[in-house]
Amino acid sequence: MAGYVAFLRAINLGAKRKFSKDAVAAATEVGGGTNVATWLNTGNVRLDSSRRSTALVAAELEQAYEEAAGFPVPTVVLTLRELRQVADDAVRFAAAHPEAGAHYVSLLQQDPDPATVTAFCERWNGPDHALVSGRAVHLLLAQRNNYHASSLNGDTVERAFGTATNRNARVIATVAEKWAS
């Protein structure tokens, strides 16, 4: 059994996309997960699986989540090692860019194309800038509480890289501390 963390996209954001932690946990078990734990209502799930591919784990979970919730639930799955690396990168990038007022991390469902990474980072190299490491796009925004006002946000990331889900760097650090230490 391998350990994973699943990050669910766009749940509990409005009246029509409700998916409680208990329902997420139960659906995770239906999707093949064992030793399931959840944190917050935003879709952070720790699980073990006999599958050895994050893509296979994500596909099985997405099917179980859609059946349980009644709507599609895009899901990004990271190994515990990948999650630890994302958290470590967040610390390193924050230290290298102390001028950033806010730090968010968009987790990608697929490995990004290197040419797309280069073009994206060149495009977003101003007051709001992006750094990509593995399947994580770090969004370092000039202003605090500026995520929805900035042109560099989850929609921008998804247009470039495909399905992604976003967390602030503090959530990534907490989830990594809880489950990937």
TrEMBL record:
Pfam family, one: DUF1697
InterPro entries found in the cross-reference section: DUF1697
Domain of life: Bacteria
Parts of the chain that traverse the membrane: none
UniProt protein name: DUF1697 domain-containing protein
Organism: Candidatus Avipropionibacterium avicola
